[in-house]
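Researcher: Please predict.
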Amino acid sequence: MTYVVTEACIRCKYTDCVDVCPVDCFHEGPNFLVIDPDECIDCTLCVAECPVEAIYAEDDVPASQEHFKALNAELAKKWKTIIERKPAPPDADQWKDVEKKLDQLDRGGA
């Protein structure tokens, strides 16, 4: 099983999870993080670190967020690995409680 970053991360992109990942499976886009399912070792460390509770075990992803499994796999191939914590975007706190943010996802390179 792998872990999946879901919609709550969009425009928040807190990188607390990156600090605890022992295998550097996180990839960074302009306003979102994803987990490479081929690199994730299912250690669960990132789940507790996410301040917006955006990370789920693959089998526990809410039904409305299932498409994020494929999105993580797709974007992990496109985006660069992030191995160090970075400051959150200046407006991250304004976005952390917003729902239905998929239209805000920037698929460009970081």
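Model: The CA atoms of residues 10 and 32 lie 5 Å apart.
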